TrEMBL record:
It comes from Pterocles gutturalis (yellow-throated sandgrouse). This is Mitotic checkpoint serine/threonine-protein kinase BUB1 beta. PANTHER family: MITOTIC CHECKPOINT SERINE/THREONINE-PROTEIN KINASE BUB1 (PTHR14030), MITOTIC CHECKPOINT SERINE_THREONINE-PROTEIN KINASE BUB1 BETA (PTHR14030:SF25). Keywords: Kinase, Transferase. InterPro entries: Bub1/Mad3, Mad3/Bub1_I.
Length: 256
């Protein structure tokens, strides 16, 4: 009640401060969430109340409200695109880190790298934090890519396997050596295209134009031009999840 009264009769020059304290208090008082805290509704009210305050578009507190509100949306990627189109938080590293991590969790590695590079090109602050997260992302992607590739034995191992199992069927599985379970290629005579794909290294991945790696030591003018995301003409922020006690639309003749 005190926060609601302060919001209603606030006459100061920083209304974001009241909403920021209100939301932090709600998170601390109701850490498990639920209808008692009603956090999604407060976040929705906050972003709508401050939407016309363009002076907050570069404020980390305001971006934090939006990102928390994104967790209440059915599709947070739509909300990140909306923030980008409205230039909300585009100078802050947190937007690109959060956006890229969601894409990475969904397996969209190229799109996640594009988001990181967009933030690096804009020199989003703090830049060191953004660089650190981008390096960690590249390490994870390289490791996952290398683990996902099929192991090809060298010529000596291939000769030994051929001598030991002259009658082996081409579709039979080979037993991997060591603790890790490895599946050998089905066909011994792989094409040049398959062999080149299977022997990719992290260094070769970095030379692929579809997966450009940001080089912090090279001057921006001398390096390749980083593609820029195309803003979408969002008229309003995405709708949050259906609120409690609200029925979703459905056939009228099938329910009781």
């Amino acid at each position: 009640r005190e926060f609601e009264s302060e919001i209603r009769f606030y006459s100061g020059d920083d209304p974001l401060d009241v909403w920021d304290r209100y939301i932090k208090w709600t998170e601390q008082t109701f850490p498990q969430g639920g209808k008692e805290g009603n956090l999604p509704a407060i976040l929705e009210r906050a972003v709508k109340a401050l939407h016309e305050q363009r002076r907050y578009y570069k404020d980390p507190r305001y971006l934090s409200l939006w990102l928390k509100f994104g967790n209440c949306c059915n599709e947070p990627l739509d909300l990140y695109s909306y923030l980008h189109s409205q230039e909300i938080g585009t100078t802050l590293a947190l937007l690109y880190i959060t956006w890229a991590e969601v894409l990475e969790d969904r397996g969209s590695f190229k799109k996640a790298d594009l988001i990181y590079q967009e933030g690096l090109q804009r020199k989003a602050e703090p830049l060191e934090k953004l660089l650190s997260h981008h390096r960690q992302f590249q390490t994870r992607v390289s490791r996952q890519t290398l683990l996902g590739l099929e192991e090809i034995p060298d010529e000596e191992d291939a000769g030994l396997l051929g001598a030991a199992e002259p009658q082996r069927s081409s579709l039979a599985d080979l037993k991997g050596r060591g603790k890790k379970k490895v599946r050998a290629p089905i066909s011994r005579k792989a094409t040049n295209q398959n062999r080149s794909f299977q022997t990719l290294t992290s260094q070769q991945l970095s030379n692929n134009p579809g997966f450009a790696v940001f080089d912090e030591n090279s001057a921006p003018a001398s390096g390749p031009e980083i593609p820029i995301l195309t803003p979408q003409p969002w008229a309003a922020p995405p709708a949050p999840r259906a609120k409690e006690n609200e029925l979703s639309a459905g056939p009228w003749n099938s329910g009781r």
